[in-house]
Amino acid sequence: MRRGIAAAVVVLSGVAVTGCAPAGAMSGASSPSPVAAPVAPPPPPAPTDLHPGTNHAYLADAYAYPAADVHAWLVDGAKAANYPQRRIAFLTFDDGPSNSTTPKDLDILRAEGVPATFFYITGPMGLAKVDPAVPHRALAEGHAVCVHSRSHNYHELYPGRRADAEHVVADHERAMGDLRGVFGADFAAGCYRYPGATCPGEGWPPLMRRWPSGASTGSTGTR
């Protein structure tokens, strides 16, 4: 009498392997557990990638300074914690970005080896109309990006020449949404520069409570 043949399929590391065994040989035997394929660790971030929770790439960590520290240095001088022993220059650019001027600025900064902080207008006057490659280049080349409002509209932000806290905060939140749309959800500007370089009138105190020193991660500087 011919012996029957039963087919068995075993999954090894995601590959189906078919084998043959005499009938009855598999009866009562427990099926082997699938062997999980090893999971490769994620690749390390590139130096030009955004450092999550900041406004700059990993390569700028060496010369990025918390805005809270810089604010304390300006207010308290040498009494402030972490006060630098050497002078530090912070180069900043307001407005923009633009498809014409910003790449030229980046060319000069790269040639001179100097980092800077760009305070962007994120609405139709700036970020909204620029090629996304421009702000991505700024970040990848070691510069920081901060907020200079979304609208840059004095009448909206400072009606009656007095800062309107609700308007400024709402404008800032929209600006942050614009920047995260470009750089990703992990982007955090950390600094806000008021249009006109100052925040006029009685609206200043509540805004200072909102941003007492520019927040966590701020400008890039060079010693």
Automatic annotation (TrEMBL):
<keyword id="KW-0732">Signal</keyword>
<dbReference type="InterPro" id="IPR002509">
    <property type="entry name" value="NODB_dom"/>
</dbReference>
<feature type="domain" description="NodB homology">
    <location>
        <begin position="87"/>
        <end position="223"/>
    </location>
</feature>
<dbReference type="GO" id="GO:0016810">
    <property type="term" value="F:hydrolase activity, acting on carbon-nitrogen (but not peptide) bonds"/>
</dbReference>
<dbReference type="InterPro" id="IPR011330">
    <property type="entry name" value="Glyco_hydro/deAcase_b/a-brl"/>
</dbReference>
<feature type="signal peptide">
    <location>
        <begin position="1"/>
        <end position="23"/>
    </location>
</feature>
<protein>
    <submittedName>
        <fullName>Polysaccharide deacetylase family protein</fullName>
    </submittedName>
</protein>
<dbReference type="GO" id="GO:0005975">
    <property type="term" value="P:carbohydrate metabolic process"/>
</dbReference>
<dbReference type="Pfam" id="PF01522">
    <property type="entry name" value="Polysacc_deac_1"/>
</dbReference>
<feature type="region of interest" description="Disordered">
    <location>
        <begin position="31"/>
        <end position="52"/>
    </location>
</feature>
<dbReference type="InterPro" id="IPR050248">
    <property type="entry name" value="Polysacc_deacetylase_ArnD"/>
</dbReference>
